[in-house]
Each structure stands twice: as C-alpha cells, then as structure tokens.
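User: Just a sanity check before I run the rest of the batch. Below are the structure tokens for the first item. I only need the designed sequence back.
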C-alpha cells in the first residue's frame, strides 16, 4: 500500500504561454481587397500574421458555406473584404455578399455562436493602410471572444 494520500483529479492545464492568438480567414476579392492587402505588404505595414488571406474572384462568390467550413475547420473568425459599394467589378457582388453575411450573423446567433465572428468590409485597392487596420481590429475582436466553436470542442492534445 502506498504511503501517500491519493491525489485528487487535476483541473485541465491552462493554455500555453502568452495571449490567445486567433486564426482569422479573410476572403478578399481579387480587384480591391486583395490589392489593398498587397499594398499593405508593399508599404511594410504591420498586421497580424494570423490573418490568412484567401483570394476570391469577387465577394459575390463568398457565401455562408465558405464561412461555416472555415469556422468548422478551426478558424476563430472569418471576414469577407470586397470593393467599395457601387464599385464592384461584377456590379453587385459585394452587395450580395453583405446580405449573406448579415443573414449568416443571424443564423450564428440563433445557434449560440457570437455573430461578431463573421464580418464584411469594403475598401478600394488603394487602401492598404485601411486593410492593415481592419486586420488588426478584427483579429483583436476575435482574440477578445476567445477560441471559436470548433476550437473549443476539440479534445486537448
């Protein structure tokens, strides 16, 4: 028989060192938002490296399935970034994307997921500084919300 008392179950270990760094997916239209991201890089503007850019021909191609698949795959936040309203190269793709994002936010809220995990932004190709600002602000918002629903449900290890 051991000569020490039985140990009580331990609580889960705290998260690793440092603050939580969210995984953010940015779906950027090839004409404006992607060009703005490229400009931000050319200008050597700082924005979080945890923002992964996915090139889409137009935000009109962005839909709820893309966002949900990204969240299901471990992203903590997703945003679509397209041309300024009235300047879409495909006429109204960005307007349709905004409607889809608005609808998706309502659906997420109805299932208990913070709708702030999904967003839509509009910018022109010359707005590199604005792209970097959006990436920093959105990443910060998601960091405050904590890990996304798929990240929380994964077993440790």
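Assistant: Here's the designed sequence for the first item:
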């Amino acid at each position: 028989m051991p000569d020490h008392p039985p140990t009580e179950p331990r609580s889960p270990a705290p998260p690793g060192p440092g603050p939580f760094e969210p995984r953010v997916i940015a779906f950027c239209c090839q004409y404006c938002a992607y060009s703005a991201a490229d400009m931000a890089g050319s200008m050597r503007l700082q924005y979080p490296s945890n923002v992964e850019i996915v090139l889409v021909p137009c935000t009109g191609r962005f839909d709820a399935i893309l966002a949900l698949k990204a969240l299901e795959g471990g992203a903590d936040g997703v945003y679509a970034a397209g041309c300024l309203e009235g300047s879409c190269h495909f006429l109204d793709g960005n307007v349709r994307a905004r409607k889809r994002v608005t609808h998706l936010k309502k659906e997420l809220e109805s299932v208990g997921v913070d709708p702030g995990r999904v967003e839509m932004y509009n910018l022109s190709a010359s707005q590199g500084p604005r792209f970097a600002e959006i990436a920093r602000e959105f990443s910060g918002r998601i960091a405050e919300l904590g890990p996304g629903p798929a990240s929380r449900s994964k077993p440790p290890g």
